[in-house]
Amino acid sequence: xxxxxxxxxxxxxxxSAQPGPADGVGAAAEAGAxxxxxxxxxxxxxxxxxxxxxxxxxxxxxxxxxxxxxKWQMVFSRxxxxxxxxxxxxxxxxxxxxxxxxxxxxxxxxxxxxEQTNRRTHDVGFMLNCSYGNGYRLTRTPAYxxxxxxxxxSLSTRFNPAVGMIRSWDHGAWKYxxxxxxxxxxxxxxxxxxxxxxxxxxxxxxxxxDRTILHHFRPDHSTWHVVDFxxxxxxxxxxxxxxxxxxxxxxxxxxxxxxxxYTMMFRETxxxxxxxxxxxIARFLMNHPRLPADKVPYWDYDAPxxxxxxxxxxxxxxxxxxxxxxxxxxxxxFGRQCLQFARAQLRSLASPAYFAKPGENxxxxxxxxxxxxxxxxxVDVPLNYADYYFLEALxxxxxxxxxxxxxxxxGPKSAATQGKKGGGxxxxxxxxxxxxxxxxxxxxxxxxxxxxxxxxPVRARLKGSANVFRPVxxxxxxxxxxxxxxxxxxxxxxxxxxxxxxxxxxNWGLHDLKHVMPGTPGxxxxxxxxDPPLRSLEEYRANLEKIVVRLQQTGARLVFATTxxxxxxxxxxxxxxxxxxxxxxxAKEVMQQRGVRVNDLYASIAPRLAEFQLPRNVHFNAKGSxxxxxxxxxxxxxELAAKAAAK
Length: 647
Prior knowledge:
The protein is an alpha/beta fold. About 45% of the residues lie in helices and about 10% in strands.
C-alpha cells in the first residue's frame, strides 16, 4: 500500500511546462525488470482523476472526447471516438474490481447502442469493441453480445470485393479511401466470425489485412495514412498522409495503428505474415533516429521543427500497448526488447511530464496529444483514446508476470528435448502444435505447467481417438494458462483454437495460490508466507464460476482436474502446502453446482509423491507426468464415450 500511494503521489507531482525525457527511462539497472510499482500507482491516480471527471461532465447523453480552453468537447455516439470513454471505465473496473466503475461503464456504454446498425462509418469497431466489447468480456451480458454481432454485420457492409477492403470515409474527393486506422476495426469482425459462426467476416478481415500490407506500407515499413482505390477494379489511384506532415511522412499515430493492428491480427489468426509485419513496424519505430529520448514520439516522425514539434502521447500509448502484446508473440529476445521499450514509454507517460495533476486537464489522464495538426484541430490537448490505450497498456503490463517455468514435457528426445549431442545439450521445448484429423472429436487441455507435462503422453494415449489441443505460443511451445485471472482474460482466444469442442479438460489453482508482493505489477511473486496469495479463495471461486459458465456455452463435456499437492520447502513463489486442499474444496463445490465432472488428480497422485514429484518442487518427473496423463486420458475417454452414446 505504501508503494502504491507514493507512486500515485509522484504521478500527480508538479507539472513541467514541456515534455522531456523521464528520469531513469531506459537505464540499464531497469532493463528486464517487471516488478515496477509505477503501474499500480498510475492506476490509482487514474481512478481518482476519472472519479472527478465524472462529477464535472456538462451534458447528459454525450461522451467526453477532449478538453481545451476550459471546456469539454462532448460528442454524440456517432463520433468515431465515442467508445473510448466507456472503454476506459471498463478498464478501471477491470483494474480495481470496484462496482462504481462497472455502473459508470454500463451507463455510458448504453449511449452507443444505436451504433450497432451504423453502416456509414468504418469506425463501428472502435465505437463498439472498446465499449460493448470490453463490457461483454468482463460481464458476459447477453445483450452486449447481440449488439456486437449486429455491429460486425453493419461494418462488413462496407466491404467491396473488387477492392478487397473496407471503405473508410464517405466524405472528401476520394473515390474509395482506406486509411491505416481501419486495421483496428478488424478485431470486431474476427470476434464475430468466431462468436457468431460467421466465417465470411473472417474472410473480410483477412482480405483487408492482406491488401493493407500490399498497398499501404513503404519499403522502410512506415505506412501511408490513406490509399484511394478505384471501386470498380481495385486499382490504386493515390497514396497520401492526410493527417501527417506530408504525403511521404510517417504520421505517428498512423504508425501505431499499423503496429497494433498487425499484432492483433497475428494473435487472432496465427498467420506468420502478420507477425512478420508487426515486427517490421516495431523495428522501424523503436529504432527511428528522430524518436525522443523519453520514447514519446513527435506528432509526425518527419515533422518540421523537431525538436520543438508537438509530441503525441496518444501515439505512444497505442504503441506501448501493442508492444506489450507483441513481446509475448515472437522470439524471446525481440520480446524482451519490445517489453523494455514499452515499459520506458509507460514510465514517461506516467510521469508529471505527461500525466495530469488531479483536477486539471479536464479530468483526462494524459496531456500533450495531437489529433489533426494540419487542420489545427486538437493540438496539445488530452484525447479520450490516449487515456484508453494508456490504461490498456497498464493492464497488459501488470498481467505480464513471468509464469512458473515448466519442466520439459516428457517423451522422446526428438519431440521434447532436442539439442546438441554431449554433456552440454541445450534443452528445447516441445512443439505442441498439431494437425487435427477432421474425422476425430476435438479435446482441449487447459492448465498450468503440470498440464504441460502431461500433454504429450495424453496425446499418445488418445491417438486415433481424439485431436488433443492445448494453447501454444507462436513458436509452438506450450502456453501456461497460469491463474484464473488469465483464464478469464484469454479464454475466448483459447476456445478459438478449433471451431467446435467435444471435451474440455481444465484446471486452475497452482498459480492462484502462489504468494505475491502486494503493490507490484504482475504482481511479482513472493517467498514470504506473510504475503497474500495471487487470488484469494473467494476470488478463485468467483473466477472459476465465470470460467465454467463460459465453457458450458461451448456445448462441450467438461472435466475439471484438481490442483496437485504442494510439498514443504517450496521457495519462490511460496505456496502454503495446505492451500491445494482448500482451493480444491472450493472448486469441487463450484463443479458440483454446475454439474461438471471432477478428475481428482490430487487424490490420485498424493500417495505416490515420493516416487513421482521432484523434491521441494511442485512439478513431477517423467514418470509422474505419465501417471497423471493416465488419469487425464481415462477421464477424457469416458466423456467422449458418454457423448457418443448420447447422440
